[in-house]
Amino acid sequence: MQQRSSGSLERFLGGSPGAVAVRLVLLSVLVGVIMSAIGLDPWNIIQSVERLLRSIWDMGFDAVVWLWRYFLLGAVLVIPIWLVLRLAKGGR
């Protein structure tokens, strides 16, 4: 009976209890490091998720502003040159 219950436990866990515990500990540490890197705090998870989403939202608009500034900078030169070339080709 002991052998059968041990086999059932290993089947349920997906391996021996010790090996599964070690994998779970290592995976938990890895996920904890990743969550910490993106700014999540286990003690204030709701506030951490809200702060993360706000940061992503702000970063998204900062990227749009950054892209818009470079577009305007390039367009100051590209659009007039394109227009002159189109007008010159149209006269032929």
Automatic annotation (TrEMBL):
Transmembrane recorded as keyword: yes
Keyword entries, A-Z: Membrane, Transmembrane, Transmembrane helix
Recorded superkingdom: Bacteria
Transmembrane segments: 21-46, 66-85
Record-linked InterPro entries: DUF6460 (IPR045594)
Pfam families, per the entry: DUF6460
Domain DUF6460: 56-90
Protein's recorded name: DUF6460 domain-containing protein
